[in-house]
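Help! Submission page says 'invalid entity' but I think these are all valid:
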Amino acid sequence: MKTLIVEDDRTLADILAFTFVREGFEVINAYSGEDALNLWEDECPDLMILDVNIPLPDGFSVCETIRKNWDTPIIFLTVRDNEEDIIRGLDVGADDYISKPFSPRQLMARVDAVMRRSSINIEEDHYQVGTVFLDLEQKSLTIPGQDPIFLSESECRFVHCIMRYAGQVVTSQILINCIWGPGNGNKEMLRQLVHRLRKKMGVQEETQSIIETISGIGYCFCQ
Amino acid sequence: MKTLIVEDDRTLADILAFTFVREGFEVINAYSGEDALNLWEDECPDLMILDVNIPLPDGFSVCETIRKNWDTPIIFLTVRDNEEDIIRGLDVGADDYISKPFSPRQLMARVDAVMRRSSINIEEDHYQVGTVFLDLEQKSLTIPGQDPIFLSESECRFVHCIMRYAGQVVTSQILINCIWGPGNGNKEMLRQLVHRLRKKMGVQEETQSIIETISGIGYCFCQ
DNA sequence: TCACATTGTCACACAATTGTCACACACATA
DNA sequence: TATGTGTGTGACAATTGTGTGACAATGTGA
């Protein structure tokens, strides 16, 4: 998956690039509207992250120009709570927006949602990170070179949740809410679920370490 | 959000309280400097509105005393255009001032601005200085080119505190109060926390020197 | 009814985190 | 040189968090 990041603030551009690379995206950086349009033509990215405030053609114009010929997803970056920008951005064809400052998790959640809505993406009932494949309909998890692992309902929710944020930590509280709904689970139940899932996944070192524990915080899906 | 209002004129104090309550703040009233200092210790407010002209220790002394151990935002109330007061107020560590008389809207605008500048702002779930990135939710510290470092609760509070004042020295006392709360930590614990954190951050020179010791005063976050 | 999978709960072992102590070293001062 | 202060470092114990096995309750299908 190829992402074009259009951001003239180099520091923020670095952070963005870092976040996407960590998620397994290929990243191209543009630092002005002109750059963006040229690179768009040359590279044909699958997704664009576009700051409104960039030099030369501003974000809105860039978005408008591209939308004439493409329907690739575009996510806008705006300063917090600037409603005018948000409305205008969506108006010129952006798929979503995110207000600065934002956390990497917030950003990836938006990317996820946009990719899911767009046709680029795999169907809703599949999930793939690296070579690991989760089938939400069959509730099966496939790791190359192994037989598929069939998951129970709650195990499936757990895997789904950590796969969505692959490479990032997901807090225990978020997981509990995702699996059992707010106020219905607890840490003890989560601990047991992870234990049973790891057991099911087998003793292989590589497989075991897919679910990493981050002490005091939560769990993390590692490629 | 808890606000301590220090104002001996009961009428004005009531108006202030009303304004804050209407905005969803919890309000505590103090009518003298002594009151203010006691309530400060007991209630740990998130914000203080402080009239200069209050009995017993005056506003300046109160502010000075509190600033020795806390970095919670303080807004001064002064009579109109008394520049001496304003300068002296900011000098003893106030974050902003507002001249009497003022409109509730003016006041809340100042409060908003001060809260935004300080990290009390609850919505802020991450912090960025240069290329260093702190995720408060994941409790992770990311330096480009390195794996994220996962922090414990107290380590996270420490990093949060020094990152807020990046480039400035933060005194040991302020750090201790930020990390363990009033009367719960000591310099020995702080020293050990820094030691463990540096160890966790690895042997890389660049990474190590992010936390600089300022002998006899405290610590400083360097780019 | 029985076998079986799934789930919630408990008890216990082990690991991570934290508070405390002891000691080494650098530096300033008399 | 001797002394005191501030800091870095390692070791230890107490506390807290996590992994694991066992058991019972529930639901499902044969």
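Support: the input was valid. A stray whitespace character was the problem, and the output above is from the cleaned input. Residues 2-117 of chain A form a domain with the Rossmann fold fold (CATH 3.40.50.2300).
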